[in-house]
Amino acid sequence: MSADEAKDMLKGTTLEVYRFLLKSNKPVGIRELQRALKMSSPSVATYHLTKLEDAGLLKRENGNFAVAKYLLENSVKISRFLIPRYFFYAVFAVAVLLIELTFMKPTFISREYVFSTVATAIFATFLLYETAKTWLRGSL
Predict the structure, then answer these.
(1) Domain extents for the chain?
(2) According to the 3-state scheme, what is the secondary structure of 59-97?
(3) Which overall architecture, per CATH, does domain 3-67 show?
(4) Is the pLDDT of residue 139 over 70?
């Protein structure tokens, strides 16, 4: 299965299972997954794990499942955390805005200063919104 087809099947509970395995950083058993994601039965967990294994995203290791292929389009994996890529841009934009408002504040406020400050604030707001949306939606 190609990477594009694998991304298409990552929706709903299957996506939650894949994200859980990405965060765990270790092979996970069926019962452990069922309890962690509060699934109704082990067969539901097995279904989603098998679906991901057939797509080539997971592999079996001693009866447990581990991530075989990382699909991180909108996120960066640092240790066991999935951080939206927009987060880093948002931090940079907020830092620039703070520098403009504190260190670069002129004695006489010109149109250019107001324009650049407002533009930076809009840019930072947009990036913070995209970060929150990606984080809450849970996409990769």
Answers:
(1) 3-67, 83-137
(2) EEECCEEEECCCCCCCEEEECCEEEEHHHHHHHHHHHHH
(3) Orthogonal Bundle (1.10)
(4) no
